[in-house]
Amino acid sequence: MSKEKTKIEERDKKIERIVKDEEFDFEKTFFFIFALVLRLALVYVAKVIDESPSPKKYTDTDYDVFSEAATHVAGGGSPYARLTYRYTPVVAYLMLVNNFIHPLAGKVVFCICDVVMGMLMWNLIESQNRNK
Fold first, then answer.
1. Contact 82/69 with Cβ under 8 angstroms?
2. How far apart are CA 36 and CA 63, in angstroms?
3. Which residue of 44, 49, 57, 68 is surrounded by the most CB atoms within 10 Å?
4. Residue 131: how many other CB atoms lie within 10 Å
5. Do 39 and 115 form a contact (C-beta atoms < 8 A)?
6. Which residue has the higher pLDDT, 37 or 28?
7. Rounded percentage of the chain residues whose pLDDT exceeds 90
8. Are the C-beta atoms of residues 95 and 103 closer than 8 Å to each other?
9. What is the DSSP string of the chain?
């Protein structure tokens, strides 16, 4: 019984060290999780608005251009086969998920990239402030 108690105490101390560790910030983690959830909710809102009979659409035409360029790439062609494609080919390759997973998967990739960029900028600013 004392071995179990010792293991529990060790686990509790480990958790306490993680919680006190400056690298793990619950508020920042909550902020970025909330940011991602909000973006994913907006992807759903966009889907509802885009499928409505209204002539107004939430999704920009560029997203359709990205998706069509990805279709050309998936078929072994060039993203520039679409005459209006004027972006980096990387975007067309990122949008391949639309062809292989789901038509909205590209929007989810954009959401994840957006939140990751926010995290990187936050960390950069924090590191610059620590060095002052």
1. yes
2. 19
3. 68
4. 6
5. yes
6. 37
7. 62
8. no
9. -HHHHHHHHHHHHHHHHHHH-TT--HHHHHHHHHHHHHHHHHHHHHHHHHHSSSS--SS-HHHHHHHHHHHHHHTTS-GGGSTT--S-HHHHHHTHHHHHT-TTHHHHHHHHHHHHHHHHHHHHHHHHHHT-
- In tens, the pLDDT along 32-72 reads 999 999 999 999 999 999 999 988 888 888 999 999 999 99
The domain segmentation of the chain, as residue ranges, is 2-130
What the block records as the tokens of 94 is: 């990122």
d(CA 121, CA 107): 21
pLDDT: which is higher, 63 or 4: 63
* Pairwise CA distance, residues 85 & 94, whole Å: 14
